[in-house]
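Our preliminary data section would be incomplete without showing what the modeling component actually yields. Below, a chain of 282 amino acids is followed by its predicted structure, encoded as C-alpha cells that our downstream tools consume directly.
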Amino acid sequence: MTEPSLEPAEALDFPPTLREVMLRPRWLAMLALCLVVAGVFAWLGQWQLSSAIDTDPPEPGATERVLELDEVVEPGAYLEEPLVGQRVEVSGSWDPGDFLIVSSRFNDDVEGYWVTGRLQREDASSLAVAIGWTASRERAEAAVADLSSQADGGVTVGLTGRVISDEGPAVATGDDPYEMTRMSPAALLGQWGEVPGEVYRPYLTSADPTGGITDAGLEEISSPAPELSSPINWLNIFYAIEWAVFAGFAFYLWYRLARDAWEREIEQREGIDPDALDDVDD
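Predicted structure:
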C-alpha cells in the first residue's frame, strides 16, 4: 500500500506588524526628519533654559554703593537693567536756560511736579537731572526762576543720586503742547537750548533738592532703592517647556502617521475599503 505523499504547505501570507511598517525605508526617513526637527526644538529649549537663570545676579545692596557715573553708563548708551537705580556721583555746571518742569510726578502717592535741569559735564556731555519735587505748580515755576538766576555756567557743582532709564516721551494731551508728563531726556532735549556734546539716555534723580546752588523751596525726590528681581525668568522657563513639548510632538506625529499607514494596509488586506469607512463615519 502506497502512503500518500506530503506536499509542502504553502507559505502563509501574514499581514505586516506595526514594527515592520515602521522599519520600512520610507518611515525610517521620516523618523530621521523628525529627529532633526526635534533636535532643533531641543536646542531652542536649552537656549531658553540657559537664558532663564541669571548665573551672576547683583549682590544685595549693590545699587546703594555710590559709583562714578562713568562707571555705570556712557553718554548716548542705554542703561543696563541691573544698574537701574544705581547711586552715582557726578559733577558739572548748570545751564541757566534749561531748567524745566515735568508734571504728574508722585512723591509718596502725592501728585506734583519735578523741576529738572541740564548738567553739562567737563567733556561737554549733558545729563538730565530731576532736582526736586513740589506739589504746587506755582512753587515749581518759582523754583525754576530761582535756579536760573543763581546758576552760573562756570561754577562746578557735585551731585549724588540714582540713575534711571528714560521713561520715553508722552503725547501732549493738554492745552500746552510743550507740557511734559514723563521724565525723558529725549523730550527735554527738544526744549533745551544749544547742547554742545552728547546726551546721556538715562537721567539722574538728585538727592539734593537745592541742585548745589540754592534752596528754591523744593523737596527731595522720593527715590527708594530698587527691589531685587528674581534671578529666575519664569517666562523663559515656560518657553523651554513649550519647545520640549514640540520636540515630543514631532515623534508622536511620526508614530501616528506610521500607525495610520499600517491600519490602512490591514484594512485593504481584509478587503475593507478605508474610504468607504471614512464615508460611513462622516
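The chain has a mean pLDDT of 85. The chain has seven helices and seven strands. Preliminary results of this kind motivate Aim 1 of the renewal.
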